[in-house]
Structures are given as C-alpha cells and as structure tokens.
Structure prediction request, 246 residues.
Amino acid sequence: MSYNFHKGQILTGSKQANANVSGAKKLMAILNTVGLVIMLWIFLFPSPYKLAMGIALLYPLPILLICFVNRNQFSLTDLTGRVPKNTKWLLVINFFVIPLGVLAHLLADYSLVSYLSRPVIWLPLSAIIGLMIIRMLRSVGVKIFSVDMVIGVFIAFVFAYSCCIYINCAYDDSDAETYHTKVLNKYINYRRSTTYHLEIGGWSSITSSRKISVSKQFYDRVATGSQIDVHQKKGALGIPFFYLEN
Prediction:
C-alpha cells in the first residue's frame, strides 16, 4: 500500500520530505510483498487451511490500522483527493483481490444450505466493519462519496460475510446428520479448468435441487438417478452446511 502526504501538511525542508517519501515507499513495498505472498498462498496451496484462511481474512485490518495510526504523516490520496494511479494496484491486491479471493475460496469449500442464513450475525458485523473502514479511509484523505469509499464499504460486507462462513464452517464440531437424495444430473465444466458437478435433489427440509462440485473420482462413481448420501452439519454459528463424501 502506498502513502502520500496529507493535504495541507507542511514539511520543514526538502530533506524531511524526501525522508518521509522514502519511508512510505519502503513500507508500501513491505505491505505489498506480504499481500502478494498471502494471495499466492491461498490460491495455490492453502495449507494449513485454518491458518492460511485466517491470515488472509484478517490481513487488511492491520493495513487499515497502520493508515489510521499514521494519519498525521501519510495519506492514501494526493493533493486532489484522488488515489494515484501507480498505487491503485496495491490497493486492489490488499483490499479487493485478497478479500474476494478468500470469499470465493470459502464458497467453493463449503456448501451452505442457505447463503442468506443468520443475517442477524453478518449484517450488524458488516455495518460495524463498514463504519470502521469509512472512518479509517476518511482519516487518510479518501473522500466520503468517492469510488474508493464505495469499494471500501463493499469490502466490509465481503469481510464480514467471509468471517461468518469461516468461523461457522471451519470451527464447527457438531455431528453430521446423514440424508439420502437422488442424483438428478451430472455434467463437466471445461471453462478455464475441468471441474465436475452434480445436481442433486432435496433432502429433509430442503425442497429445491442443489448443484455441487465434486472430485472426478466421485463423479465417475455415481450415475444419474442413483441414490447418494448427503451429510449436513449445524454450523458453529447456526448456519447449516452440507457436503458429500468425495
């Protein structure tokens, strides 16, 4: 992440200004390098899983804290109130790619019975984190109605929702309940990479069909119309999720 001097801040002497710019660039390089490492970690080899996802999920928070603590010396914006183009990609990595990557990873790893379950948990958390991000971004010079602020609020929702899914599924220790359902359809998706999918019928209180990604081995073992077992867990936060034995 890159920092520029606050609008209107007066620096005494060019040496001091150059020293501050140099320090900001070094800090930017460190944060950006760590962000790239985390991004590669979660996308290529997220192991150990809980540690990788936890660090990636929480990483934007210390960056925002650094911005807030150093708000009297550094700012994310230039004198026009805009984020310089050469720093946009740094913000994208740390505040956009990583949070969205974590969310996509979690949604691929866990199949929720309902993706809107327990809004009483993640909506208030989204609001709290959103207010924190707004305050921190405002403290470093980002305008309240700017695109960057809107993206920041959106990322607050992504962060809160990801936190709920992560805690609910990764730290669930409830016993799985097993149900029987039928394979309604099976298909292979060849986009970008080859993935295998099943469409399965409802079970218990679930009346609608569900589509789920499976391994090639599991895909080859089942046939359309066959019966399979679905395992459903309660979730640590009360958000039910299910899985198949691949």
